[in-house]
Amino acid sequence: MKYKFFGLPMHYGADSIGLNFGIDELKKELKKKNHDIIEKIDVVNAEEDFDEKYIKYINSITANCISLAKKVNEAVVNNYIPVSIGGDHSISMGSISGVAKEMDIGVIWVDAHGDMNTHETTVTGNIHGMPLAALQGYGHEKLVNIFYKGPKIKTQNVVIFGARNFDYREKLFIEQLGVKVFYHKDILNNGFTRELEKAVNYLTSKINKIHLSFDLDVINPDLLPGVSNPVEDGITLEQADYIFDFFIKSNLLSSVDIVEYNPAFDKNHVTRDFTVRLIEKFM
Q1: Residue 178 φ/ψ, nearest 5 degrees
Q2: What is the rounded distance in angstroms from the CA atom of residue 28 to the CA atom of residue 238?
Q3: Is the CB of residue 91 less than 8 Å from the CB of residue 64?
Q4: DSSP letters of 174-229?
Q5: How far apart are CA 53 and CA 211, in angstroms?
Q6: Which domain holds residue 16?
Q7: What are phi and psi of 142, to 5 degrees?
Q8: How far apart are CA 234 and CA 257, in angstroms?
Q9: Residue 56 DSSP label
Q10: What are the residues facing 165 on neighbouring strands?
Q11: pLDDT tens-digit series, residues 194-248
């Protein structure tokens, strides 16, 4: 399998300074190992309507996601598996759109959060809490129509894995749509490998290619502190390794995201070093 690596150091979706420095930190560390592999995409700053408090930085986010979608789509057309590195999780609206234009895919959204808000349900107005809804066709039309018009993935082909923090209205929306969720409490109660196997089987019963969208905040912040929105508890580093090793060895991967590394909150570079470790698995 051939991989292409794209880095989009966008922080607008989280409205959190620090995310914009993550790609440079990763590139610097990889270069020390003679792995100059990440193609950095310059972040676009678009004119915004700052009265739109429930959909912050929508024009900049849309523009940047389109830039990423074009790069990812070109990689897919040329038979590469694109690995998109953030930056905040809103970049997934670009990465998944770029892949979905060429093939039907399932998505395993590995995240402490659901990212299923819209501008009508959000508490913060931060768009990194909205991408999974927009990709299914729900929310602001500018987000839904990134790269091309309409939904990019079907709800029946979506799994949220490892979640442990939802907004109230977001959770109601997830239940209303019937999105399949494997909660962190399920992992604790039933076992990690068993729940991951169930999640994969759920998707592969309907689809044969899967996009792995991995938010580093799914990991216990005591182990991996360098994220913008830490949530107590979470999976272990070994379990995160297992997820990547499993999908790399499978023939299921269409594409990958690794998002929300924020060096501003890191301690002793442990998050940087672990993210580099995940990237090196593809080499």
Answers
A1: 85, 30
A2: 25
A3: yes
A4: HHHHT-EEEEHHHHHHH-HHHHHHHHHHHHHTT-S-EEEEEEGGGB-TTT---BSS
A5: 31
A6: 3-280
A7: -65, -35
A8: 19
A9: T
A10: 113
A11: 999 999 999 999 999 999 999 999 999 999 999 999 999 999 999 999 999 999 9
Q: How many CB atoms lie within 10 A of CB 66?
A: 17
Residues paired with 219 in a beta bridge: 235
Q: Show the CA angle centred on residue 203, arms to residues 170 and 208, nearest 5°.
A: 135
For 275, the token pair is: 């993210």
**Is the separation of the CB atoms in 164 and 234 below 8 Å?**
yes
List the Cα angle 237/83/55 in 5-degree steps.
Answer: 90
| Helix (H) or strand (E) run with residue 275 in it | helix 270-280
Asked whether residue 15 carries a pLDDT value surpassing 90, the answer given is no
Q: What is the pLDDT of residue 52?
A: 76
Query: Per the structure block, which two tokens stand in for 46?
Result: 């678009």
**CATH number of the domain within which 89 lies:** 3.40.800.10
Which residues fall within 8 angstroms of residue 266, CB to CB, at 6 or more apart? 225, 226, 272
Structure-token pair, residue 51: 């009265």
5 bridge partner residues? 38, 83
**Cis, bond preceding 87 (omega within 30 deg of 0):** yes
The per-residue b/e assignment along 120-137, b for 16 or more CB within 10 angstroms, e otherwise, is ebbeebbbbbbbbbbbbb
pLDDT of residue 16: 85
- What are the tens digits of pLDDT across the range 112-139? 999 999 999 999 999 999 999 999 999 9
The helix or strand, by DSSP H or E, that contains position 258, with its residue range, turns out to be: strand 253-259
How many separate domains does the chain show?
1
Q: Which residues are catalytic?
A: 89, 111, 113, 115, 128, 215, 217, 260
